[in-house]
Specification:
The protein has ten helices and nine strands. It has about 270 residues and is an alpha/beta fold. It has a single domain, classed as Alpha-Beta Barrel (TIM Barrel). The strands form two sheets. Strands 3-5-6-7-8-9 form a six-stranded parallel beta sheet.
């Protein structure tokens, strides 16, 4: 075997080894759309089981499922989320899997979220975190008020994938303002590549280098996301890339083990 052939083989084998449990340092995938049939994510229990198996092979041990709550598009409630959570939990048990899943939500900042805040009926992550998002088309003028209102209830807001809001790309200071307001920031793993475009990757890497991210999630919806995630862990040294940030995903295990997670009634 020639030197170059041997080198190529070694690199290929190294990439394969690196892809196994590459994401184990995160321990918890805290943003995904694995609950079946209630938003634009997984369409069936069987599909969800396949996704969980694949994500587990990448190193994730537990999953906090965060279906959309979006007025007029995905009008989910604790009841609908609880039903989907129960169905997937039963599917895992029947398949012999001991993987644990937990139910929360990704709340769009809209009138519906305002009502949930007013009634203190948010879908919480373990530890009292609340995942929020904005439209990709236009900035929500209610962002900072929403952050404050969530905090007044004693909860901790996390802004999902801030790197994907293109209207912030020319104003890096806004990310600092959001952090200074006490809101945590969550990176989509896919943003480390060009999956969402060059500009999104550029902002994501700037936020990474600035140590701005607190949480990391897959935001997995479908097969293409899964294929791209597997490609990322084969090509990128994710753990090394994120060493500049204090990633809090593993701390969610403490809250889970302490039984502080959201209890959603399946009905």
């Amino acid at each position: 075997m020639s030197f170059f052939s041997n080198l190529f083989t070694k690199n290929k084998n190294a990439a394969s080894v690196r892809s196994i449990s590459q994401l184990d340092f995160l321990e918890v995938d805290m943003h995904n759309h694995l609950l079946p049939g209630i938003d634009d994510g997984s369409t069936s229990v069987q599909q969800s089981l396949g996704y969980i198996k694949e994500l587990s092979s990448l190193g994730f041990k537990k999953f906090i499922c965060t279906p959309h709550i979006m007025e007029g598009v995905h009008p989910n409630t604790k009841f609908s989320i609880g039903q989907a959570h129960h169905a997937l939990s039963e599917g895992l048990k029947n398949s012999g899997s001991d993987v644990e899943i937990f139910a929360a939500a990704e709340h769009m900042i809209d009138d519906g979220l305002h009502a949930l805040v007013e009634s203190n009926d948010l879908c919480l992550m373990p530890g009292g975190y609340v995942l929020i998002e904005m439209s990709y088309l236009s900035e929500s003028k209610a962002l900072f008020q929403t952050i404050l209102n969530i905090q007044k209830l004693g909860y901790k807001p996390i802004l999902a994938h801030p790197e994907r809001y293109n209207y912030y790309h020319s104003n890096f200071n806004i990310y600092k303002q959001i952090k200074d307001a006490g809101c945590f920031l969550q990176l989509n793993l896919l943003s480390l590549s060009r999956y969402y475009g060059v500009d999104v990757k550029a902002i994501a890497m700037t936020l990474v280098k600035s140590g701005m991210y607190d949480f990391v999630g897959t935001d997995l919806h479908h097969d293409k996301h899964l294929r791209s995630l597997k490609d990322i862990v084969e090509k990128y040294p994710v753990r090394e890339m994120l060493k500049t940030c204090t990633i809090l995903n593993p701390t969610l295990l403490d809250h889970i083990n302490a039984g502080k997670g959201q209890h959603i009634i399946a009905g």
